[in-house]
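FYI - complex with pantoate, inputs then prediction.
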Amino acid sequence: MATLTVLKTPREAAAWAKRVRRAGQRLALVPTMGALHEGHLSLVREGLRRADVVLVSIFVNPTQFGPTEDLARYPRDLEGDVAKCAEAGAAAVYAPEPGMVYPPGYQTYVEVGELSQGLCGARRPGHFRGVATVVTKLFALLRPHVALFGEKDYQQLQVITALAQDLELGVEVVGMPTVREPDGLAMSSRNRYLGAEDRRRALSLSQGLFDAQAQEARGVRDAESLRKAVRDRLDAANVKEDYVELVDARTLKPLERVETGHAARLLVAAFVGATRLIDNVPVPREGT
Ligand code: PAF
């Protein structure tokens, strides 16, 4: 296993990244909030295919949590995360304290327009402002050639793709497929909150999405029926819907139906007990 550098301050991280670039190496960034799972590690491995060196940032970003959300109890395991990053081949971890990223007097935020407004943006006011701000700060500080994100957070991926393009940050933003447990549950750091019974109920999200994809493959095209396929699974598991939406895969605007040759995405957010989970799939299924 290669040795891994742990960077604690913005200054250290910027200097480290500058040395990488000066050495003529391509730098890949994998931004995370830690509690790493196989989904994150798949991003590290893809980063190594696209660049010479991978840096993982681990920062539970306070500005993307609402006042009643789970910032305080969000899982933190820096030691375990560093070991996983080393094992996956990352060269460095950047793990600053909140006060280093948002020192007293901090007052600059990044807002992405329409893409941030529906779906999770409507249910979690300020969430994407916090995400866009911290990711822009990471891009500006580290100036990676490529940055990798999971499609599990599909709206986040579109928001970050837009900000990198609109602000001409010179970073290639790459989205990677959701990594799932063998039974279909999308991997998420928040799955750690689930007890055995809730873990079973949480399967209703992916099962509903897969049912909808199967219906679409049989010719069901209207959004209402596809949404109902998801809702039926949520209801049967007594899981509370936050939203179920069929949207254009790029603009995230709601669609009435799936049109041939037009990429759509079906997204769900739901509460399993107190835990809010999200998941999404392409419609039609990829490869069809
Ligand atoms: O997806 C996440 O873990 C976070 O939203 C991100 C992109 C690291 C920003 O804090």
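The pocket of pantoate is lined by residues 31-33, 61, 64, 131, 134-135, 153, 156 (CB under 6 Å). The chain has a mean pLDDT of 97.
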